[in-house]
Fold Disease resistance protein RGA3.
Amino acid sequence: MAMILDASVRRFVGKLSEFVEGEMSMMLGVKDELKKLQRRMERVRGILESAEQKRHTYPDINIWVRELKDVMYDADDIIDCCMIEGRRLLEDHPSESAVRRPLSLFSCFSCIKFRHEIGRKIRKLNERWKHTVEDISILSKLEPARQGDQASGANHRQTFSIEVKSDIVGTQIEEATHGLVESLIKEDNKKYRVLGIVGMGGIGKTTLASHIFNDEKIEENFSKRVWVCISQDFSETKLLEAIIKGMGGNSGAAETMAELVSRLSSLLSKRYFIVLDDVWKADVWEDLLRYPFENARANGRIVITTRDESVARSIRAEIHHVDKMDDDSCWKLLYKNVFEDDDEEEEISSFKKIGMKIVEKCDGLPLAVKVIAGVLRSMDRNTVEWNKVLESDAWSMCQLHEKLPRALFLSYENLPSDLKQCFLYCSLFPEDYKMHRKDLIHYWVAEGFVKATQGDALMEDLAEDHYRELIWRNLLHGHNGHNDDDWCTMHDLLRSLALFLIRDESIFLGDEQTPNTNPLSKLRRLSMVNAGEMVEVPDVIKQQKCLRSLLVWRSYKTMVPNELFENLRYLRVVKLTNTRLDSLPDSVGDLLHLRYLNLYRAEIKELPESIGRLLNLEILNLSYCESLHTLPKAITKLYNLRCLRLQRTPLTHVPNGIGKLQHLNHLEGFVVGHDDRTDAQDDEGCGLEELQSLSQLRYLSIQSLERAQPGGDLVLGNSRSLRTLILNGKRPPRNLEEAIAIQRNDEIYNELSPQSTHLQKLEIHNFVGTGFFSWMMSSPLSASFPNLASITLDNCISFPQLPPLGLLPQLKFLYVKQAYGIKTIGPEFLGPHASSAATSFPKLEKLTFQWMFNWEEWSFGMVEGVGEERRVAPKLLPRLTTLTLDSCPKLRVIPPLGLLPQLKSLKIVGADAIKTIGPEFLGPRSSSAAASFPKLEGLCCHVDNWEVLFFGMVEGVGEEKRVAPNLPPHLMNLSLLASPKLRALPEGLRLATNLQRLVINHAHNLKEINNLPSLKSLTIFDCPRLEHVENLDKLQFLMIQFSRSTNTSTTDTDGPTERLPQGLLALLQNAPAATQNLKEFKLICGLPLLKTFLKDGPNWSIIQPIPRVEIGEYWRPSRRSSYIRYTRDPPTFETHIEKESEESKKC
């Protein structure tokens, strides 16, 4: 990124002021010179914003700004040195004031030498600053900033609610999606077809491709769907591995390209749909992907998105040009992103006239419209402010590349200075890289982009606000997930803009780019992707004496030379992840300015004691360093450390003294005590008591809690701002009696009571004790943990019951796994008000119970009576959308889940004690028209002992009308897996008018599937007694797979023992008009039945009217399986009957 001058001067003046007023400046004798520098900087602060804006128009101003920045960088380095030396002197003589403090002879000579050198540097710095800023020709072109001109004054924290809004507006994209989907699913005799979606950057190619990818018809017609983003800096190995993973395979031991290509070819045995997003070169197809697709066993479709039409043509793709949006669609997209859903239409209409003029300037590009919407959202909502956007000079910025929309530059110019730096830094990540919120925050803090705050807020808190605001302004794209805003990406056009703006002092080198000396003069930040054969950092990089940030990505083969750190003394940020670096040289201790050191997944075996000299180090990431077993004692000297990440690193212990690191706010993977199997002394391992002094903690995860010793005090009593707490233990050591170990665990976990009302995430793993800890059973939980949003309880085997978690007002996610001590869950789980008018679990969205091997009964404990449960039910789990019951073999009683008003997905797997799902599953029927499962869209059941599944009784016309409203009105997907005792589908299922997909596996006693009027997709596996499949008028996809165990004969002499259900045969043979909707038929069977579908076989006439047919033999490890592939239009018939199968007759 590039330094933003006004922001940097503002922060530096604050830093200078703090230093000048402290003791250290007096001890070093530099106070007067630094005050002079401070005054000179303050005088010009008012014109620096104007200079930043005009530097892109006036070359002389650009030179002037660059000279000032050079002075600023040098000043920052000098103040760093002063602070380090001053801190050393204070530590040597802590008891005396600066005036009276006596110095030793050695310290005296050392101090005099330093004072002389630093004084000379500061005087020289003063002269350079004075000489530069007094250039009259420059000053005459600049205006002081007017009060209030700065966009979004960042003096106070703001809360930005992130909502990822859709790009889909108007009819253009809907019509394009529909037409392309129909074309892609149309049958032909080609092995594969390639569709090229072509258009300029920001026009919506990826949006269209994603709309196609997620279309229901694409899901129905293709067994495997894979999305891969390629970008300009793609790695051939990573690309192949990503497609292999998406196809359901793994690269295994494959190392060479040939092995990976072969592995991919073997996986392309099912009909596939693959999107290759953002293709820049045709080489990726010709040199890498064409061969496996041409040699695939199954047909497929490939969609590429590219800006370059020649790329699409060179791979012989069918081309679809993405048109620009019309102005009306642009206006609709604009107001959807500026206004809230509940805003009055009249107010929106009042902005339409000026809004249409603004979107005209966006030239039909959705990205441009969205970023301008981000600008308008940040301003006061009135036409005066909107007119400022319309008449902004940024629209006519002529220095930008012609392919960069000016709207993007305008959105950048509207940012506050601090946000500009954060935005620009994101361009140092590789193209299309998925950036994590925590990583960005740590980079920004380490680079000094976030100024220190007052009160309880940390710099990390302010950095998180910056992150959210960049998403809110549509300059970063947030990705939905478990935590909605943890991940983001940067559009490549915005990234190109940022790279253009930082070109004077920062550079990103792609995989095929070689650094040279010309563009790297006075380089401050370097980021490079190394996915190729480079094994050592190039010499030209070692020569960049001014380098402050070095980021190396995908650097699996990179060796880091020892002399690297000796040359680059001014480094602030070092990222050397996934390298072959097995040790750090002692010279790392000379990086006195270093704030950030990331060695994630490095092969590092030890850290030198010299690391203790890194007094400015703030972030240290040693996670997944699988060869690192110990930390040096000197790590406890890193007094400015704010983040220490140690997860998945096999440390035997953490050195005593971590409690001295008072600024730590993120401690991940803290290991308690020491490993008895090592030579560590008893006093070497860090105890829980050291956490008591870490009052700034926001994130804490603890390992090896079984080693801890109870101390009687609240360990986290001072951590009043804790947001995340993760507790990990193991089973107690075998040399302790079980009763003693359990009692000790109880004491330890009770001492870990979090005293923070800010806690948002709690995870507890591998707890063994007499019961739940007191701090989770106390009442009221709503007062103790008012912000707790996510809870994971994993392998807490001794809990006899769950705490009243229903009282937590903000809980959204709850995962309970391996709680073997629980037999029943009742109203205590909901809270004492379960039967009252109060709401239990008011915000819970996702609930999972997994591997609960002794759980027998789950009850809401509601008051019985006509309509009473329906009255109470809306107060229970009113927002629950996803419920999973997985591997609960003794569970025999479940509550009336049909009453949950927002449940969309229900999965019941491995609840083998349940034999009948009856009316209690839906909830008691009443005279009301209320439906059971009113929002349910997907139901997946995998229960071995089910005999009856109830969806309502149908006993006559009148009864049918009475029961029908109780069925899930929105049920679209139903999966019944491993239900061998299930005798029949629920009779009322035919009244589920939205049911479209049905999957039935291992239903050994099921005899019929019929009367499902809306069903489009049916998959049947191992249902040997199935006799009737009929009255499925809208069926489009049918798959039947026999189990090999039912095929007792492998020869033709006895004929096939497998047979299609008679009802299906009759349906296909006698009523072809009724099957006109059937698009695809798949069958997996033994060889005898397969042969009956050959052209001279008795079943050929059955498949002949179907557009697409695939029939395959069971997979056999010793030989290639036989198959038949047939398409009706155009007519194709491909078959392979393995000869070895024929020879088996002779055996």
Summary: The two ends are 74 Å apart (CA to CA). The chain is about 30% helix and 15% strand.
